[in-house]
Amino acid sequence: xxxxxxxxxxxxxxxxxxxxxxxxxxxxxxxxxxxxxxxxxxxxxxxxxxxxxxxxxxxxxxxxxxxxxxxxxxxx
Length: 76
Hints:
- The chain is 55% helix and 0% strand.
- It is an all-alpha fold.
- The chain starts with 6 loop residues before the first helix and ends with a helix.
């Protein structure tokens, strides 16, 4: 069985407290979101969670960009 990291695990690789970039800021803020679905891989479930619970995410386009990068990294 091949291990596929969760979206959250991938997102944490994008953290950078010194960056003002959208993806880094998303990752930095998600780190402190205690209810973030940390084991989730499904785009729809993640999107629904973020739309309802992530006031720190100014645009879902940022999530879309991050998820696309996640999918590209997870391709085998």
